[in-house]
Specification:
Length: 241
Amino acid sequence: MQQSSVTPDGVLLVDKAAGMTSHDVVALVRRRLQIRKVGHCGTLDPIATGLLLLTLGRGTKIQDLLMAEDKEYSGTMMFGATTSTQDREGEIIEQREVPALDEKKIRPAFEKFRGDFYQTPPMVSAIKHSGVPLYKLARQGKTVEREPRLVHVYRYSIDRIALPKVDFTVVCSKGFYVRTYAHDIGAELGCGAHLYSLRRVKSGRFDVANAVSVDQIKNGDPSEIAARVLSLPQVSRMRGA
């Protein structure tokens, strides 16, 4: 493949597939578009799918601005078990019987985690402790004290109750861990819970409906993928809309 004559500067919206890390997507775009300078805004765990904002070329300079945007997620939490990672990838730590929960009983737990509140980041996260990412310490079986962070849930909805699973949507601030949200709601209900699946739907004014799929990046014409990159003026207009 020849090096493209014009390196696109801007933002590419990608619909991340399950089983990939955010870095996998960055590496794929670097390879397919022959661009070295590619970053991503807001890590998605391998089990998660959905909107991943990639910054290309000079677009990397606005990465922090884009990462500060609010996010919208749809997901499923599984009641009755807590795990080491707070999602279904981890080892089950404790199992409990799930009582006969209905919306009337579940809603107060969701309400407790609405508006401003403090959330303790999970051990399996990229936050650093003395320069070492927490997930590396977690792999060594270590647990360290984490500083609770002020986060905000703007709104949520309980979309479907099919015990032991509950489907939900949440709109939240940056730095919010949906895994921990599921874990904490399960603790509040007394039966424990973990995150079963997750999809990022929106980040700021950017919507996954406008994203390019991983399959399209892998199999499409690189010039067509490059044409999907939002220019910096386009991004600026969208953020100011």
